[in-house]
Amino acid sequence: MVVAAAVAVFLLVPGGGSGVAPVGAAEPPAASTERAPSTERVAGPTGTPIDAEVLPASKPSWLEVPAIGVRTDRIIELGLQADGALEVPGDAVTAGWFDQSPTPGEVGPAVVAGHVDYRKVPGVFQRLKELTSGAEVVVHRADGTSAVFAVSRVEHYAKSEFPTEKVYGDTSGPELRLITCGGEFDSSSGNYEDNVVAYARLVRAFRA
Question: Which domains does the chain have, with CATH numbers?
Answer without folding.
Answer: 2-28+57-207 (2.40.260.10)
